[in-house]
Amino acid sequence: MENMTTPETQEIPNRFDFSTACREIYQAWVDQGCFDANVNKDKKPFTIVIPPPNVTGALHLGHALNNTLQDVQIRMHRMMGYEALWMPGTDHAGIATQAVVERRLKELENKTRHDLGREKLVERIWQWKDQYEARILGQLKSMGCSCDWRRTRFTLDDRCAQAVRTTFFDLFSKGLIYRGKRLVNWDTYLQTAVSDDEVFTETVHGSFWHLQYPFIDPKPGEPTHVTIATTRPETMLGDTAVAVHPNPTEALARVEAGLREKLNEASAKDRPGIETQLE
Fold first, then answer.
1. Is the dihedral of CA 37, 41, 44, 47 positive or negative?
2. pLDDT above 90: residue 4
3. Residue 43 — pLDDT band, cuts 50, 70, 90?
């Protein structure tokens, strides 16, 4: 009698494990190049450059919504016959990334960037970038985003940095942009300028400081000094002269009369602001 071998059996799970199934299906798509976009003269191109998320942390629900809408567009155009490219990448986030790295450096090692020096600090920032870029790209992949991962870029990659320098030089040479003196937001702790979107505006209760500036050779009966009120006493060190209106009482009365006239004609919406000026 021939030996009968029992075929191997595989137990069918009693519930669908989406985490395992999605990962396997997604990897199969990547391995088969389903998301790859190549130069193809026979197809119309369709391209989306992903708004690069900052490498300062993890993606949130806003990123999830935004990237889902982009993915819908890319997949739809692929099915319509376009050579569709969804370009992935991450953003260096400027001073925000440096601030995060410096804060962790202080919390974990009680050191500042001055203790490390420029080269070591840059090295730490790149380490942070590598760690959180991998996390962000992993989140995008776990969402099923159909990016062409071969083309992943970081905004400080040599290629991207060269493109930025070339573009700015070209625009400057054509006179389309120029350098000029501008007021900046100076961070006294980081000792560098930061952009407007990295500044938090806060209203605080301040104080009026009264400074007395002496007159030079006052005549008999004339005041010996003039009092200046300011909220920024530190600017005193840069004062070189004091400009005084020749008839301040008359000027103040004229301004007050103008405000009261505006108040009489103002709408209910504008009245509080004018009343505040009169106070």
1. positive
2. no
3. very high
pLDDT higher than 60, residue 2: no
The amino acid that residue 29 corresponds to is W
pLDDT tens, residue by residue, 50-99:
999 988 878 999 999 999 999 999 999 999 999 999 999 999 877 778 88
Closest CA to 227 of 214, 218, 237, 240: 214
pTM: 0.62
For residue 105, with 0-12 CB atoms within 10 Å meaning exposed, 13-18 middle and 19 or more buried, which class applies? Answer: middle
The neighbouring-strand residues paired with 87 are 49
pLDDT tens digits for range 157-191 = 889 989 999 999 999 999 999 888 888 888 887 77
How far is 212 from 224, CA to CA, in rounded Å?
Answer: 9
Kindly list the distances between the CA atom of residue 11 and the CA atoms of 119, 166, 261, in Å, as whole numbers in the listed order. 56, 61, 88
Instruction: Write the secondary structure of the chain as one string of H (helix), E (strand) and C (coil).
Output: CCCCCCCCCCCCCCCCCHHHHHHHHHHHHHHCCCCCCCCCCCCCEEEEECCCCECCCCCCHHHHHHHHHHHHHHHHHHHCCCEEEEECEEECCCHHHHHHHHHHHHHHHCCCHHHHCHHHHHHHHHHHHHHHHHHHHHHHHHCCCCCCHHHCEECCCHHHHHHHHHHHHHHHHCCCCCCCCCCCEEECCCCEEECHHHCCCCCCCCCCEEEEEECCCCCCCCCCEEEEEECCHHHHHHCCCCCCCCCHHHHHHHHHHHHHHHHHHCCCCCHHHHHHHHC
Q: Nearest 5°: CA angle at 207, between 201 and 211?
A: 125
